[in-house]
Structures are given as structure tokens and as C-alpha cells.
Amino acid sequence: MNITWLMRMAKWARRPPSMLHVKIAAVAFLAAIVIVVVDKLGYWPDWAKLNPRGLRNWKP
After folding, report:
1. Less packed terminus of the chain by CB within 10 Å, N or C?
2. Does the pTM exceed 0.90?
3. Total structural domains within the chain
């Protein structure tokens, strides 16, 4: 662990984030989890998916 992270942790210990920032981060995290779960269950619409790229679908 370098000194930058130690300084950041000390700053957070002295002045923690506000409850509003904690709520915003929690909502963003939960939204991402919901999107991943909906996609894995197969309920995410096809028009909202990216087309796969790379060598996975490469055909000679």
C-alpha cells in the first residue's frame, strides 16, 4: 500500500462522506447489480445489447 492510499484513508477518517454521497453510491451499485442480474436471467432486450466483437465469432 503506498502513501497516497494511506493519506486518502486518513482524510476519509477525519471527514467521512456525507449520507447523500453514500446513498448515491449505493443506488448506483444496486442499479448495476440489477442490470447484470436481469441480463443473466435473459430478460434484457436484444436491442439494448452490444454486438460481440473480437475473435470469439470469427469465421474463416
Report:
1. C
2. no
3. 1
| Measured distance CA(22)–CA(36) in Å, rounded | 21
Integer distance in angstroms from the first to the last C-alpha of the chain? 47
Q: Is the pLDDT of residue 24 over 80?
A: yes
Whether 1 maps to a domain, the answer reads no
Residue with cell 435473459: 42
Residue 51 domain-assigned? no
Residues 8-21 have pLDDT tens digits of: 999 999 999 999 99
Cell readout for 14 is 477525519
Query: Is there a domain that residue 52 lies in?
Result: no
